[in-house]
Amino acid sequence: MTTLTPENRIDAASRTVPPRGGLNVTLLRIELRRVLRNRRTMIFTLLMPVAFYFAFGNAEYGDDRLGAGNYAAYSVISFALYGAMVATTSAAASVSVERSQGWSRQLRLTPLSGFAYITVKVVAAMVLGLLPVALVYAVGQTGKAEMPGSAWITSAVLVWAGALMFAAFGLFMGYLLPTENAMQVIGPLMAFLAFGGGIFYPYPAMGSTMQHVAQLTPMWGVSMMAHLPLTAEGVQAWQWALNIVVWLTIFVGGAVWRFRRDTRRV
Amino acid sequence: MTTEVSVATGHESGESGSAAAIRLDGVHRSFGSVHAVRGIDLRVEPGEIVAFLGPNGAGKTTTIDMVLGLTRPDAGEVEVFGMAPRRAIERGLVSAVMQTGGLLKDLTVAETVELTGSLFSHSRTVGEVLDRAGIADIAKQRVGTCSGGQQQRLRFAMALMSDPALIILDEPTTGMDVTGRRDFWSAIRADAARGRTVLFATHYLEEADQYADRIVLVRDGEIVADGTAAQIKARSAGRTVRATVPSLDESELRAVPGVQGLELRGESVLVHTTDSDAVARHLLTRTGAHDLEITAHGLEEAFIALTGRDAEGA
Predict the structure, then answer these.
(1) Residue B221: closest CA among B60, B92, B97, B81
(2) Closest CA to A230 of A75, A85, A86
(3) What was the pLDDT predicted at B195?
(4) Which residue of B has its CA nearest to A99?
(5) Cα(A69)–Cα(A47) distance, rounded to whole angstroms?
(6) How far is B91 from chain A (nearest CA, A)?
(7) Out of B106, B118, B122, closest to residue A15 by CB
(8) Least crowded by CB within 10 Å, which of A102, B2, B62, B89?
(9) pLDDT value at residue B187
């Protein structure tokens, strides 16, 4: 047996538990770098919203008046919101990759708490969500889009805050789907929801039946809230607020449920 | 062995004091109808290098998972340095090198190690750990492009990051070639010389024989032998003494303590015994025996005898 001297011994009593469940800046920095390195995420969150704006938002009907501005402005908000939602969703849904690669299990051999892990995912999601908002709003300055200065600012903030709800959606899906490419399933689903939620197809332009259906889908509430500084046409505040509360509860509840299941000590 | 344990000055000394690195006390664990671990008692002292040897399905991984706090025992107690496994993990006292998985393909080698280190309140530097694992040259490479052997060294580097007092390796060299395996073990050995406790699960006999101070043999969820490689070889079936003896008095030889069986082939005799010294002494002093040979059973035979299975068997 190896002879041990006091010098080379490891003293168990001198060790401490890290603060904040292991949450730290290095962890956040590396997580962000990972997210930014993902080319597919970058295409869907940055290139697509900008391309959509030029293709649909800045089209000939872009000059048509709507609320305090015009349709082009409506689409700036819409596509920034779409980009931000895809960003937060995919950053959070990366838990599915980590589960399938055994990284989650590896993390259980470290002091990192489940809460700290989720916090990192959400913070990364929010930072990533900022990028499409900044980019689409910058690009929006060049075309036909027109609304009051205050509406530009408040809608941008609401877009970003609203996208947070989809970090919960991403976590829920990431824990639900046992696959390395959860986003391949979620991506098309989100595009579908964006049509329903008045993002790809402006809510004010929908027929009344279509509007009733739209009100039940998860992107609708956030979309109405984000468009509020431009137009509140035909929608009561409690309607979109209720939509947000219900869907947020479902997403957060689902994420917590799946997370507990995943990390339960057997 | 326990007397060497240094006690921290002043605070919490009772916690680590003379605590064993690992203490399992009557541990049981079932999965449905499968009783994977059936009452394991084990004490590993700080600084020991212990091989946990047994055929697949013997309960090695389940036991390791309990030591790491990944699985809870149905009955019995598990302590690591005198505390619950999760508490030891939080303090960076225990780390593990798993067989597969546990890596993110889109990170670089250095990032993986840096990230791991950032989670602990006490950690070594990235450069030092990469050097010790022998992967400093691939620090900037993406994990997904590393070979199996390189990934295994990376897991080892990650395990070193918290400067743990105990490293647990679960079948660490599976899938490595001979050179890779030798290099991996020399890194582990060099590291253990610094005072770390090492517990590794393996079903390779040579690995257990060459690299462990102590072998704990498990079968069907129970410990069937525990000792040095030499002790285990001896315990299983002892040794065989062969000699040429003219006009042998068979009954006298049978009366020698430890003799388990005799085979006579003309003038040559084969004695199976647990005490080869006594048999040799008897033959050389009381008889006209010559050409005396003593053969120890190999670990391979011991393994088969004690586990009732083939070493490589499923």
Answers:
(1) B60
(2) A75
(3) 79
(4) B102
(5) 25
(6) 5
(7) B122
(8) B2
(9) 80
Instruction: Report yes or no on B302 lying in a domain.
Output: no
Whether residue B253 contacts residue B259, with contact meaning beta carbons closer than 8 Å, is answered with: yes
Q: Please tell me the total count of domains within chain B.
A: 2
Asked if residue B132 is part of any domain, the answer here is yes
Cβ of B119 within 8 Å of Cβ of A17? The answer is no
SS3 content of chain B, % helix, strand, coil (to 5): 35, 30, 35
> Which of B233, B259, B274 is the C-terminal boundary of a domain?
B233
Could you say which of B211, B233, B255 is where a domain stops?
B233
Distance from CA of A116 to the nearest CA of B (A): 10
Tell me whether A114 touches chain B (CB under 8 Å): no
B243: domain range? 239-296
Give the separation between CA A9 and CA A19, rounded to whole angstroms. Answer: 25
Q: Indicate which CATH number applies to the domain containing B187.
A: 3.40.50.300
Same-domain status, B225 and B243: no
Residue B303 counted as domain residue: no
Among partner residues A13, A106, A108, which is closest to B13 by beta-carbon distance? A13
**Cβ atoms < 10 Å from Cβ of A132:** 30
ipTM over 0.85: no
Other beta carbons less than 10 A from residue B137's beta carbon:
11
Task: Give the one of B70, B104, B192 whose C-beta lies nearest to A103's C-beta.
Answer: B104
In a domain, B87, yes or no: yes
The answer to whether the Cβ–Cβ distance between A16 and B116 falls below 8 Å is no
pLDDT category at B254 given cuts 50, 70, 90 is confident
Whether residues B7 and A13 touch (CB distance < 8 A) is answered with: yes
Q: Is the Cβ pair B106, A38 closer than 8 Å?
A: yes
Query: Are B117 and B155 within one domain?
Result: yes
Place of tokens 């003309």: B266
Q: How confident is the model at residue A187 (pLDDT cuts 50, 70, 90)?
A: confident
